[in-house]
Design the sequence.
């Protein structure tokens, strides 16, 4: 742990800067995995039936943090939130939270070049329509994601995400003859055991490897960004979702930590967004981080 950090190690910081990602093994316990899989399996079964999804078709849902308490509590997971705050600061909220079930695919999908335009999952970096603003041709640090993997992805071609090491530092797309080109040496297939988390910059180029494993891949992604950017899964969450949330959960769900609705302040003559200029009570993660830092400093002294 570094002196000015809550949890992030120097090696994790280096990897996040240089490679754009690092792995946290055993981020989730067996019990957490079982609980999450129970809910995901139920949703997957229900929506597959309702939407008539084919056996090989993936099933995805967005804004899952608002959908069920097991997904809500993952957004401020005590083991992972300190890393998010170390990397992005405390003035943050969720941009998106999504689940993904990817059934086994026919072997023929592996015949296409990984991530090519013809493949089932082309290389991309996450960004809004019309793109992020660029600085010297590079996407600035606007967002990070945590991927939680709930099934075994330790084998090649088990449907794991693939990332291009360091691609967040190059231009958004290198194109040659109309094709997106990646250096195969820099491709990292995230072959991990259940319970592993991938902490990554979503500006990294990424795609998904074919799933020839015989079992469905199940995972969750939580994207965090500064509060002054608009989220993609919601404008404001449904009041029912906000009931019983802690102030920190309110903040992460895009609300003010107080639970009040004075988003533009209290002065009608000089309105000012509390996303632009928050008061401390709007962003309880600030006090939380200060408290945690104090505790860690005390622990280090002993
Ligand atoms: O399904 C995956 O592993 C990749 C997800 C993805 O493309 C994303 O989170 O932007």
Sequence:
């Amino acid at each position: 742990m570094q002196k000015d950090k809550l949890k992030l190690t120097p090696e994790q910081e280096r990897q996040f800067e240089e490679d754009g990602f690092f792995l946290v093994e055993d981020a989730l316990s067996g019990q957490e995995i079982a609980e999450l899989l129970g809910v995901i399996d139920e949703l997957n079964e229900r929506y597959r039936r309702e939407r008539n999804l084919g056996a090989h078709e993936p099933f995805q849902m967005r804004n899952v943090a608002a959908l069920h308490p097991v997904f809500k509590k993952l957004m401020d997971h005590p083991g992972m939130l300190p890393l998010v705050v170390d990397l992005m600061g405390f003035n943050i909220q969720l941009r998106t939270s999504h689940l993904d079930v990817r059934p086994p695919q026919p072997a023929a999908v592996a015949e296409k070049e990984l991530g090519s335009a013809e493949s089932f999952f082309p290389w991309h970096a996450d960004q809004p329509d019309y793109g992020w603003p660029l600085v010297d041709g590079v996407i600035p640090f606007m967002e990070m994601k945590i991927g939680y993997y709930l099934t075994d992805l330790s084998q090649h071609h088990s449907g794991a995400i693939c990332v291009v090491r360091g691609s967040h530092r190059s231009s958004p797309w290198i194109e040659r003859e109309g094709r997106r080109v990646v250096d195969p040496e820099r491709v990292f297939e995230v072959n991990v055991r259940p319970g592993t988390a991938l902490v990554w910059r979503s500006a990294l180029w990424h795609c998904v490897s074919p799933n020839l494993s015989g079992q469905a891949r199940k995972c969750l992604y939580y994207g965090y960004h500064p509060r002054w950017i608009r989220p993609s899964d919601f404008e404001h969450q449904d009041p029912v979702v906000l009931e019983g949330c802690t102030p920190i959960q309110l903040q992460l769900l895009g609300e003010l930590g107080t639970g009040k609705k004075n988003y533009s302040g209290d002065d009608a003559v000089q309105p000012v967004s509390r996303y632009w200029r928050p008061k401390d009570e709007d962003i309880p993660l600030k006090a939380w981080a200060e408290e945690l830092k104090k505790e860690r400093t005390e622990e280090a002294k002993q």
The first helix runs from residue 10 to 18. The chain has a mean pLDDT of 96. The two ends are 15 Å apart (CA to CA). The longest strand covers residues 92-102.
